[in-house]
Request: fold
Amino acid sequence: MDSLIAASARALAAGDALGALKRVALREDPPALALRGIAMAQLGEHPRARELLRRAASGFGAHEELSRARCVVAEAEVALAMRELGGSPRSLAAAVATMEAHADHANALQARLIAARRLLLLGRLDEAGAALAGLDTEGLPPALAAVAELSAAELALRSLRTGPAQAALARAHEAAHRARVPALLAEVAEARSAFDRPAARCLSADGEQALRLDEVAALLASDTLVIDACRRGLRVGDMWQSLARRPVLFALVRALAEAWPGDVDREALIACAFRTRDPDETHRARLRVEIGRLRALVKPLAQIEATARGFVLRPGRERRVAVLVPPIDGDQASLVALLSDGAAWSTSALALALEASQRTVQRALAELEADGRVRSVGRARAQRWLSPPLGGFTTILLLPASLPIE
Reply:
């Protein structure tokens, strides 16, 4: 490795992308191309960065498989930044194996972190947790340690474990301070600010109240019967009943909870659950069937009793009832939450993260674009979607595929 390449690599490690480019901007040898690609990625020029990394990988000889593996890992991180999440993880796994064989443990750990962060973006929190648990973070460079702790903090936040999340963020702040990389410090500061912003709204007999993340966790741990509109289910303490795949039943129980301690008349329940303004006998018959199904599902947590005008929710044991709703309204809340990180997402990546069809996502994006809440850049396969960061509240509870509460 010559002196310019070494100096450029040191500049990149310190977050000085322009300083790195000054040293290798005119060179076309594979090591210089790789460093230029990483520098362009740090500057946000992701398509150009990917092109340079691919040229570098193809330029390394057969005896330089470790250098090629490092290019693969860098390209995978560029794809993550571009929110291109549909690629096969096999090439990244092969790169990890090559690095481990050459005792390049730091870069191998970085590759594993990229895989775990991809799982976090896709909402596969159980898989991400297993991936992060298997990482050996002893003796890591400070910048890499900060990224590992940020990933652990995001996993804890999305699982509403606020204590472990705060501890991980404290460790991330310490590591970022030692690394002296401004971008890392800013990312940690932004993550820590989520604790001070409203994360959800609580609707109860006492009115509406904005809750921070720690207050949400306290509410869910209490003896209150919580109808969770963020995860679509009911919770009392450690007991959890999911209704995520039963939208009609969830609409019914939410309407009953919002009216508690009063009852709800049958016509209002029909309009809420079946979205019709002209109910007939078939709707009334269907309401009786759905109420029967709901009674059976929520029996361990609450009772649903008939009244003269409709139905009423009885939580039992003198429990209170609260409805936990997202900080913003609308069926596209999870989509807005994904886009609020400021990155440019492809339609296919959004569909993967939401576990929905691309056509469904495209329709929702068209509605949001018409309302001025998102914008697109590029065309056809290069089209990406952006949204301004939502600084008024944290979107943790809006993100899809959270861990089930048991």
In short: Residues 402-406 have pLDDT under 50 and may be disordered.
